[in-house]
Amino acid sequence: MSFPKIDDTHDPALTSWVSGADGHADFPVQNLPLGIFAPKAGAPRAGVAIGDHILDLAQCAERGLLPEAVRDAVRGRTLNALFALPSADRLALRRSLSRMLSDGKHRESIEPCLFAAADCTLHLPAAIGDYTDFYVGIHHATNVGKLFRPDNPLLPNYKYVPIGYHGRASSVRSSGVPVVRPRGQRKAPDADAPTVGPTGRLDYELELGVWIGQGNAPGEAIPINEAAGHVAGFCLLNDWSARDFQAWEYVPLGPFLAKNFHSTVSPWVVTAEAMAPFRIAQPARPEGDPAPLPYLWDEADQAQGALSLTLEVCISSAKMREANMPPHRLSHGPASNMYWTVQQIVTHHASNGCDLRPGDLLGTGTISAAEREGYGSLLELTEGGKTKVLLPTGEERAFLEDGDEIILRGRAEAAGFASIGLGECRAVILPAK
Amino acid sequence: MSFPKIDDTHDPALTSWVSGADGHADFPVQNLPLGIFAPKAGAPRAGVAIGDHILDLAQCAERGLLPEAVRDAVRGRTLNALFALPSADRLALRRSLSRMLSDGKHRESIEPCLFAAADCTLHLPAAIGDYTDFYVGIHHATNVGKLFRPDNPLLPNYKYVPIGYHGRASSVRSSGVPVVRPRGQRKAPDADAPTVGPTGRLDYELELGVWIGQGNAPGEAIPINEAAGHVAGFCLLNDWSARDFQAWEYVPLGPFLAKNFHSTVSPWVVTAEAMAPFRIAQPARPEGDPAPLPYLWDEADQAQGALSLTLEVCISSAKMREANMPPHRLSHGPASNMYWTVQQIVTHHASNGCDLRPGDLLGTGTISAAEREGYGSLLELTEGGKTKVLLPTGEERAFLEDGDEIILRGRAEAAGFASIGLGECRAVILPAK
Description:
The structure is a homodimer. By secondary structure, chain A is α+β, with helices and mostly antiparallel strands. The first copy, chain A, is built from eleven helices and 27 strands.
């Protein structure tokens, strides 16, 4: 398994001459996430986050400051071309950026390519060819399963198949784009027929997003011991869900309009290379669980295929913002609560010859912890709307209301290394049209 | 409802100076379907089929022969830009092409832009942003439902919701690209655990494909009386399916690897304008069925929202081809066996604000007739593999075998008009890797 290796770019003692970068919660010089940004009155272009600044990669390329292998690839309006390169080229870019942003001798040539992040707009990092959402958060699957089937929450295929389904690529939006409350069909359990209207059970789902790097040829599988080489990086993903639409529409072909109105991703791609220090063993399967089938089994993947990443969900209601209250944390828990590793997801997806392409987005599915404090959706926190969540204003929530803003965050930590973050994934709910 | 109107381009007396076009089974001058083709040793470009020839639209544009509104749009390697134009512009293109290809005075200027279709390769007509597959063939839904739930084949939502799910855009291929038999997980009903291997239940699905023209803004619905204006045209779609994978993986989130290894479309887009004479009333709902909800109801759509189109499936086994036998017809039936119109599908899809984009592909789902001769999949024809189909060679089929080729065809007919066809959608099965 070709996981990126730890090198001197991960050195916790490394500092940057960019003011505010050292000790930055998300983007110290050890992170160097990639994204697409537009400065005021400028066109979208590739950039890298460093503290509260963004380095313009296109401008750096024009000035001949980047490795030759990536120069053309960073000039587009998306990162797809950069994702399509061998990961060795992105590693070369990382090493070059690390040097330029840490060693003061580069300051003069680099500083003109820096923008204050606050003055920039962040866009989707890639043109998403296909977006696939998985269901590997086993506690989420169990919690949701219990609502429908108390005695038998997990279906028989769950521990053999990394369950996934295709989502909607067109409606994936970058952090900050408001979510319009969707309209649709829902049927009350005791009603004879459905009615149409704004969803009354709007929910978030806390997920990890995976950006695909190099793809596979149509008809060719991706062996599990090569899967890590196809992952360009990670982001946060909020898979907004209309639970009432979902319950009515989802048999027999799965969720559709309950999900495809809007999905939000954090705009920065934290590269697989940046995550090298944060690899941990995949949690052991409970005794009695079947071993993964051979095509999904790799010893190295089990040893270091999971991520030491803590995820959290916060809410900020309109009333809270009026009262200048900080966002209220709804839940937090480790991203390792996944029954399958990212590599197993990738290999399973391509196992029938399905071609993944650079810039494709995979979602893990909601990642919940075993305990209530780590539940990754309101559906779980409120037991399907029965137990309301109390906000600091005294407001209660069974599901989301107009004006509510949901903020996802993720933080990678490992002893002896500088902590890095995924940045924010946020969006506010607007009333239905 | 703004359905395209019948005009003099549909005149059955219209003839073309292109040899072989008059009386052509699929592409007489009344059809003029759009596609992307590559001549020998040439790059892919936009073209229009006329008889056994293809007119190079990019070359016509360069020579100033096309309406100004479409000149830039036909110069790309896909039809997406042409689909993004108002349908009035595609109508202008159609009228111009009809004049140039029927009136002999244009022959001298046009003839150098013609290629023999036999010398050309046909590509996917558009870069597909998202591909959605529906389930509106009510006899198919009933037949398949019976296999699982003999007493209650249709689920309660079927007559309210045009059921659909997202498919895989990356694995949609043009006619002629062989299908590699996929490998995957399947579990025999009496087995304790699944095994992995090539599918033993490979099937086709006969569907109509719909190419989206102008899209909608994110968050904005498409009213039913405007839906027809968002349809650029039609094709045939074979939604290849691995039934053993499907049965094992599809709960609770729907089909995934059972479908996303390959889907085949016919390469020519028969435009909504070309189909104007072939509009018929939507079949009346059986007595007792609920009326469509208001957002899906439009009188004009009910009056002329269906298509007078006969679809057929043929098979050609390797043995049949060795013996020079013609393909054997497995089934045929009318495309109007849809519980929802194409317009209702489009409106439902966007009803939650989901944005459709030019070049998106919608599949209707398998279209079966009520009678066995019109069943659109082997799953139905063989009752889940129990009743084998006999081929003229004496071979039998429960499901598809390596070397089998499946050919879909579609023909539009209406009294007083020249019949037009959708062209062929074909692919042969290769052994698993």
